[in-house]
Amino acid sequence: MKIEERIARRQHGESDPRLVLDYDALSPVVHPQEPVGRGSLVERLLDCIEPVFDGRVPSDVYVWGPKGAGKSAVIRALFAQLDRLIGRSDSQILTTTRAIPTPSVEFVYIDARTATTGFALLHAVLDQLVSDPVPKQGVGAEAIATRLDRQLASDRAVIIGVDHINEPESLSADLVFEQLQPFTPGLAALLVGRDPPTATGVGDREAVQTVHVDGYRRHALAEVLTSRASNGLVRSATTHGQLRELATWADGDAHDALAALFGASVIAEQRGHEKIYPADMAVGMHAVPRPGVSLGRVLSLPDSRQRILSHLIELPESDRRSVGAAADAISAYNVELSRATIERVLYELAEAGIVRRVKAQSTGTGRPPSRVELGFPTRVFSHLTSEP
DNA sequence: ACCTGGTCCCGGGCTCGGTTTT
DNA sequence: AAAACCGAGCCCGGGACCAGGT
Question: Which nucleotides of chain B are near protein (any atom < 7 Å from a CB)?
Answer without folding.
Answer: 8-16, 20-22
